[in-house]
Every structure is written in C-alpha cells, then in structure tokens.
C-alpha cells in the first residue's frame, strides 16, 4: 500500500507581466491531473497536493506540460515534499536573528542538487550572498539596493546548472505551515 505524500509546487514567474495564472484555474488543472487535495497559497505560484507518485521528475513533467497547455506559456515548476521543505528550513543558516532593515533572507529552490561551487559566494556588487545549500536549495541573503532586492535566481541557475525559483525565508515557513494544514 502506498501513502500519498504532500507535495509543494513552486511555480516560477507567474502573475508578473503578461504571465497571468489565476489560482482557481491552477487548482482545476492540477486536480484534472488526478492530484489530490489541491490547494494554493497566495498568488505567486505555490500549490500543494497529495500524490502516491513519488517520482519528482515524472510529476514535474506532467505538471509543466499541463500548465503550458492550460495557460499558453512555459511555467517552470520546482517540486518538494513537505518533509523535504521541513528539512531545508531546518538547515537554513539564518538563525533566529531577523534580517537587518536593508536585507532579506531567501531560499532558492533548484531543480536538482546544488553542487560543485565553493560557498559562500557573494555577487560582485555585494547585493546578494549564497550562504550555503541543502540538497537542491540555496540559502541567500539579499541586500536591498534602492529599497529593492535584486533577484539572484538567474545567477544561481547558471552557477549550479539548474532551474530555480525563490521565496523569502519567512514565506517558505508559511508555505510549509499552509501545506500541512488539513
């Protein structure tokens, strides 16, 4: 007997510019794939579901194909189980100290393990720093420039040879809590 696991799908670059993805439609598409207990969290592309399928590559391919068919553009999807996200949050090097007023703590979720780079790595401008990794997740401290964070995801993708999307650390904590609610 197989037990359904809670999965968390992090969708990249939705509801920015012309890349509109209504959460109700997203839930319909995922439910139509036979995924169970489909829910979403905020409109930035976070979905939770249960599935007995434990092959993340197969699930990602299925989801990405269905999303492109439904919305008309590619939506890169990074998948974690609730257990994986819990372990990544526990491994985060941010400690209990909140970020300074000019910084943000972030988790960049990669599509594969992040290996082959000596850490920490800091951008030439000093606007972000990869403090460490855990599996496929990079822990990043952002510095605000002109009041805004700079997105290091494209650099992370190139550095590690993966697709990636990020969420602030505090948002990641809230995503896990929401995913585990019944």
From TrEMBL:
Say if the entry is tagged with keyword Transport: no
Name of one Pfam family that matches: DUF1697
- Keyword list, A-Z: Plasmid
Do the record's keywords include Acetylation? no
| InterPro entries the record matches | DUF1697 (IPR012545)
Alphabetized Gene3D superfamilies for the sequence? SP0830-like domains
The name on file for this protein is DUF1697 domain-containing protein
